[in-house]
Specification:
Rossmann fold; OB fold (Dihydrolipoamide Acetyltransferase, E2P); six-stranded mixed β-sheet; disordered N terminus
């Protein structure tokens, strides 16, 4: 059973040695991994812990650790998704319960693994490999991750976009799709509107339509995608045009005639 989400624990003390982030949604297993690493690799500083994939992505961006220990099946974003962002930035170790068919993809060398339940002997081997790799820059993992995805999850359903990196002024913010109320095309950019603010991305609305879960986001206009969960209801203006009312914002969104059929049951 997955543990409830918790704020990531980040160490604030400076360190001159190698650093790592441990991302695992099972609290007991995460604590066990941290404790065993402290015994097998005393010089390694665990600078962050994450209870889900979104937290892991934030810690990757904020801390740029030398090593990421990633549970493959995490809520928010999978270990594979986090590893794609870590490619070329951090060394990756997967914590997994996958069988030998998936493990064959790990054996290519640039990605290592630790099987659940965690074995101290196997973790020792992983630590030795990581120490050797620290002398070289982190490897690009794109090809291996594609192979691993095919090996580890044959026949699984399509994976939809779960998070985006968006610009808020001069800052970059990680936003999960569950936070988003609607997207709206804005010249060369797309506005990402949440309950408490806005951000911009360069991804087009057409791309978003293809990458988002159509059960979670409806296109209601050629320039607008709205979260179904954020819809409070619909109304008509004095010209008879359909408008979407939102739960957490005062905005109203115009529905073009092409998409009014989505609201026939409302």
């Amino acid at each position: 059973m997955n543990a409830p989400n918790a704020e990531p624990v980040v160490a604030v003390m400076p360190t001159s040695g190698p650093t790592a982030v441990v991302a695992e949604d099972e609290v007991t297993l995460r604590q066990q991994l941290v404790e065993q690493l402290s015994q097998l690799w005393p010089d390694l500083a665990i600078v962050g812990e994450a209870a889900d994939g979104v937290q892991a992505l934030r810690l990757l961006d904020e801390l740029r650790p030398d090593v990421m220990f990633l549970d493959i099946n995490m809520p928010g974003a999978t270990g594979l998704e986090v590893a794609r962002q870590a490619s070329g930035k951090s060394r990756v170790v997967f914590v997994t319960a996958y069988d030998e068919h998936a493990i064959a993809a790990f054996e290519q060398g640039a990605i290592d693994y630790v099987l659940k339940p965690i074995s101290a002997a196997r973790l020792f081997t992983t630590v030795q490999r990581l120490r050797e790799r620290l002398a070289a820059p982190p490897a690009r993992l794109d090809h291996m991750l594609a192979q691993l995805g095919n090996a580890a999850a044959p026949g699984t359903a399509r994976s939809y976009l779960r998070w985006i990196n968006a610009s808020v002024g001069q800052n970059l913010r990680l936003i999960t799709v569950d936070e988003i109320v609607y997207f709206q095309a804005d010249n060369k950019y797309t506005r990402v509107v949440t309950a408490d603010g806005e951000a911009l991305i360069r991804k087009s609305l057409k791309e978003l339509v293809e990458e988002l879960d159509p059960q979670q986001f409806w296109q209601i206009h050629r320039s607008t995608l709205v979260s179904v969960a954020a819809i409070a209801g619909v109304t008509r203006d004095f010209r008879g045009r359909m408008l979407v009312k939102l739960k957490k914002r005062d905005d109203t969104l115009l529905v073009s005639d092409t998409y009014t059929h989505l609201f026939r049951q409302m």
